[in-house]
Design brief:
- By secondary structure, the chain is of the alpha/beta class.
- The protein has 4 domains: about 80 residues, mini-chromosome maintenance (MCM) complex, chain A, domain 1 (2-Layer Sandwich); about 150 residues, OB fold (Dihydrolipoamide Acetyltransferase, E2P) (Beta Barrel), CATH 2.40.50; about 325 residues, P-loop containing nucleotide triphosphate hydrolases (Rossmann fold, 3-Layer(aba) Sandwich), CATH 3.40.50.300; about 70 residues, Orthogonal Bundle (Arc Repressor Mutant, subunit A), CATH 1.10.10.
- The chain has 24 helices and 25 strands.
- The strands form 7 sheets. The chain has a 5-stranded mixed beta barrel with strand order 3-6-7-9-8. A 5-stranded parallel sheet has the order 11-14-17-10-18.
Length: about 675
């Protein structure tokens, strides 16, 4: 009797008022044959007195259970009542602030889904037969553990076997959510918490709301779960009563009128790009860094919705190559700290899940699979810094292809099929595989990266550690000056972040004059090339467009002007001259970046391959090397170049070695 009174916490009059106020929700429930009715707090709050509000917040399960019973009786069908749209004043918590004091209480929290499991059946109660008396009874299972009966509630006996005869299941799914970037203060690591979804929250129609990388708002009850390893230590999780995607990202961080005034003043300064560039890693000096920092400043404000007409990304990807010890890692770490939404990953310690996403066994539910998001998914809409990109495995690099260009990751493994967003700018660094950068060799020969990854970067810069008395003295002076007084950047990190957020929202339009400059530049550069050399392709054309738009955004300009295009041209040509010059003819040759082979190398490959094929008629067991070299002299091909070409043909699989220094075409 006492238990019955404890459950009856809401009077019938109040329940009737809520029912009458929920006509739209009830009609939708009946029309769409749903399993639950979602009550909007804003519509029912006027009916709640202090006692009922306290019951909602502190005895949520009983509150909603009574609601569900009443609605089910009135509608003559089983109904699950849920609630949404609570104001933030009602126990809205950061994930890191959830404590044991919140156990069994209603809270609301936001996070980005990092892990999403399969939907699995969960036994909520089990039916037993007592062998001694023949009595049957149900036992509810709690904390994900099957409760074995020790006493028969029918006869009161404790002896004899209890035989399981039936069970009742519901669908269940596990999420792991991580604090969003706008809720993390300086120096904090994002906190995480497990969320359990049950019944209709796991329906197929909910699948798009629970993919990794999506930001969600959770309304739920905090519960405890025993840690399997340490029985005295409990884990907290949220038993969700409702979940909804949040169309809010780091760009929605509050910017005060005073902040906006400062931002506008900066934008109206003579050279806001240089001001922001000089605020990026102020401890790194040198002429090379001037262009790199300008490019990074533009990268930080790049991005936005893909163009429907050309379906092209707007994020800028940058690759920095160079000798060890020139500050690449320091630069990436600093940028990851000032970017409003970012992840920092080191290639040598990363895995494909660390970068993109993966499917793995569910260790919590002991069976099934979970979909886990990596850095590119979690930082979607922001920036990922990848240090030591060249140390990634082949499998991990392959997972980058789709993420960099299509800005999505497609997962199709086990029972999980999903497409995740990776609308992320990438700033990466890599070292030459022979220790030092050689200006006489092309980029593909010096970096352990495939051309298909290299050519997806909009800008590539090379940092070479060369003695330069004037530059070395300037760097030393700046470093020593920093020992005496603290060197502060022109803009502090907080204002810089807010400026980036503000600028990213700008969607500049193109003027006809700016478009004409892009067109003329592309056509003239293409027509100025030699017959067999291609200096630029449409991929670089799109890079110019992305960079020019970012230049307009950083000025907070509503239009892209001729100056923006000229800056984009300057940065692109600077980058291409660093890695796209053919050392044999000193011309721009985009094939070096696109395929790893220059146009002149391709001609040599073709000529040497033709020579081997012709000589193969006289040497069916394989053409000796000296015969190939002698024949090559007729075409003025240098001996060393021919040997290098043979190595490339072997590597590419066009020829094979049939004996000691004997070669045959495939």
């Amino acid at each position: 009797m006492d238990n019955a009174k404890e459950v009856e916490i809401l009077d019938v009059g109040f329940l009737g008022q809520i029912f009458d106020a929920s006509k739209e929700e009830i009609e939708k429930f009946i029309r769409e044959e749903e399993k639950s009715i979602i009550l909007d707090y804003e519509k029912i709050k006027s009916y709640l007195n202090n006692k009922q509000l306290d019951l909602l917040l502190n005895k949520t399960e009983k509150f909603l259970e009574q609601m569900s019973i009443y609605f089910s009786e009135r509608l003559d069908r089983k109904v699950k009542v849920r609630i949404k749209n609570l104001p933030e004043s009602l126990r809205y918590l950061r994930i890191r602030d959830i404590r044991s004091e919140h156990k069994d209480k209603l809270i609301q929290a936001e996070g980005i889904i990092k892990v999403s499991s399969e939907v699995r059946p969960f036994i909520i109660k089990t039916k037993y037969l007592h062998e001694d008396c023949g009595g049957e009874f149900w036992v509810e299972n709690k904390n994900f553990v099957i409760e074995k009966p020790k006493k028969c509630p029918v006869c009161g006996g404790t002896k004899g076997k209890f035989i399981e005869t039936d069970h009742e299941t519901i669908d269940i799914q596990r999420l792991l959510i991580e604090e969003p970037a706008d809720q993390i203060e300086k120096g904090e690591q994002p906190a995480q918490i497990t969320v359990i979804l049950k019944e209709d929250l796991c329906e197929p129609r909910m699948e798009r709301k629970t993919l990794p990388g999506i930001r969600v708002k959770i309304y739920g009850i905090v519960k405890e779960l025993k840690n399997s390893n340490l029985k005295a230590i409990l884990d907290l999780y949220i038993d969700a009563i409702y979940i909804e995607p949040v169309d809010k990202d780091v760009e929605d961080i509050s910017i005060s009128p005073e902040d906006e005034r400062k931002i506008r003043e900066l934008a109206n300064s003579t050279d806001v790009l240089s001001l922001i560039a000089n605020s990026v890693a102020p401890g790194l000096y040198g002429k090379h860094y001037e262009m790199i920092k300008k490019a990074i400043a533009l990268q930080l404000v790049s991005g936005g919705k893909r163009r429907k007409s050309v379906d092209e990304r707007k994020n800028i990807h940058i690759l920095i190559l160079g000798d060890p010890g020139v500050g690449k890692s320091k630069l990436l770490r600093y940028v990851s700290e000032i970017a409003p939404k970012s992840k920092y990953v080191v290639g040598i310690t990363s895995s494909s899940v660390g970068l993109t996403a993966s499917v793995r066994k569910d260790e919590i539910f002991k069976g099934g699979w979970v979909l886990e998001a990596g850095a590119l998914v979690l930082a979607s809409g922001g920036l990922v810094c990848i240090d030591e990109l060249d140390k990634l495995s082949t499998e991990e690099l392959q997972s980058l292809h789709e993420a960099m260009e299509q800005q999505t990751i497609t997962i199709d493994k086990a029972n999980i099929h999903a497409t995740l967003r990776t609308e992320t700018a990438i700033l990466a660094a890599a070292n030459p595989k022979f220790g030092r950068w050689d200006k006489m060799k092309n980029i593909v020969d010096q970096i352990d990266l495939p051309p298909t990854i290299i050519n997806r970067f909009d800008l590539i810069f090379v940092l070479v550690d060369e003695p330069n008395p004037q530059q070395d003295e300037a760097i030393v002076n700046e470093l020593l000056k920093g020992l005496k007084e603290e060197r502060k950047p022109p803009l502090d990190k907080d204002l810089l972040r807010k400026y980036i957020i503000y600028a990213k929202k700008i969607e500049p339009q193109w003027t006809n004059a700016a478009l004409d400059i892009v067109k003329d530049f592309y056509i003239k550069l293409r027509s100025s090339s030699g017959e067999d050399t291609i200096p630029i392709t449409t991929r670089q054309l799109m890079s110019i467009i992305r960079i020019a738009e970012a230049s307009a955004k950083i000025r907070l300009s509503p239009v892209v002007t001729e100056d923006d295009v000229n800056l984009a041209k300057e940065l692109l040509l600077y980058s291409l001259k660093e890695v796209g010059i053919n050392p044999e003819n000193n011309r721009l040759d985009i094939d070096i970046i696109m395929s790893g082979i220059s146009s002149t190398q391709r001609q040599k490959l073709s000529k040497v391959l033709d020579i081997i094929k012709d000589l193969q008629k006289d040497f069916p067991d394989g053409v000796p090397l000296n015969e190939i070299l002698n024949e090559s002299k007729k075409y003025n091909l240098e001996e060393e170049k021919v040997k290098e070409t043979i190595e490339k043909l072997l590597k590419e699989g066009y020829i094979y070695e049939s004996g000691d220094k004997k070669y045959k075409a495939v």
